Amino acid sequence: MKRLGGAMWVVATIGGGCAAGGGLAEPAARVADVVLASQTHEGARLETVVELENPNRTPVPLVEAEYTVSLQGVGSYTAREWLHRTIPAAAGQGEGEEGSPGRQVVRLPVAIANTGWGDLAGAEYRVEGSVSYRPVGEVRQLLTEMRVPLPSVKFEGSGRVERGDR
Description:
By secondary structure, the protein is mainly β. It contains 2 helices and 8 strands; from the N terminus they run H-E-E-E-E-E-E-H-E-E. Strands 5-2-1-8 form a 4-stranded mixed sheet, with no helix packed on it. Strand 3 and strand 4 form a beta hairpin.
């Protein structure tokens, strides 16, 4: 019971989200574009381009993305992608100095079967999702052992599908 009480104190003290990562600031994520990578009479492959920024002095390993791409007049498609990438540490952060954030771009694929829709270039889209990441440090290790979920950063955006061959 004492260990459980201590574990609850740790969770209550450091809270959720990025604080669970040992004091790191939360990365930022934004949808830059949805690109039509390829299209045939059988189907299409879209890529959601997500830009991530890390304001921290330590790299942030990315774990997975879960996302939904909705295309007007076509439908919604949900996917999960294991990322196996890291957002680099912010550059130029010294004592009392603000640096530029580390940046990473991920391309999240969605393959859809053709059900009679035409060319998807120019179709309106809406994307919602999140990227989970694994903060480094002993506190995060303890939380992982206690099965506390990894923190994540949400992203969303809308616009028109761009052709990928430009």
